[in-house]
Design goal:
This protein has a single domain, classed as Ferritin, core subunit, four-helix bundle (Ferritin, Up-down Bundle), CATH 1.20.1260. Helices cover about 75% and strands about 0% of the residues. It contains 5 helices and no strands. It binds MU-OXO-diiron. The site of MU-OXO-diiron has 7 residues, from α1, α2 and α3.
């Protein structure tokens, strides 16, 4: 069993990760509509990764003897005027998720819950990568996205993203 506060925060994080998946799938919907299938594919994989994060935290809670409960997942309600908009929303969202992970980590540290800290180490690293990926994408879009050929090439590049399941979820 975990400290009550940590169990609650982790349970809430399952919902946040599922919301993240929902949000990125909404980005994919937007890009499909814009005819940018590579961007849509990139965000579909992003959504799969977020779902994985939810599964990993759910599994951790269960393995710790906790009862996981689900709340409603919020509706993604962003509207986009230009292709850069979802990319910027994505970076801000990742910064927000990093702050959530940091809060749980700090609670685990305070409770001397070294097991949860160790579990969260993967997420701390992952958040660093996700913020960098989101930031890199904005930089590339600013460099190449404003002219059709550049946008086409970037779309091709993003279409090549491959999904890799995290080791923790492999059989
Ligand atoms: Fe699961 Fe993008 O943080």
């Amino acid at each position: 069993m975990l400290d009550k506060k940590i169990a609650r925060l982790l349970n809430e994080q399952v919902n946040k990760e599922l919301y993240s998946a929902y949000l990125y799938l909404d980005f994919a919907n937007y890009f499909e509509d814009e005819g940018l299938d590579g961007f849509a594919h990139w965000y579909e994989i992003q959504a799969q990764e977020e779902r994985d994060h939810a599964f990993m935290i759910r599994r951790y809670l269960i393995d710790c003897g906790e009862r996981v409960t689900f709340d409603a997942i919020a509706k993604p309600d962003k509207t986009f005027k230009k292709h850069l908009d979802p990319l910027e929303v994505g970076l801000e969202h990742e910064k927000y998720v990093t702050s959530l992970i940091t809060t749980i980590y700090a609670a685990a540290f305070e409770a001397k819950d070294f097991k949860t800290m160790q579990f969260l180490d993967w997420f701390v690293k992952e958040q660093g990568e996700e913020e960098k990926n989101a930031d890199d994408l904005i930089k590339k879009m600013n460099l190449f996205g404003s002219e059709p050929k550049g946008l086409y090439m970037l779309n091709q590049e993003l279409a090549a993203r491959v999904y890799n399941a995290p080791a923790a979820l492999l059989p």
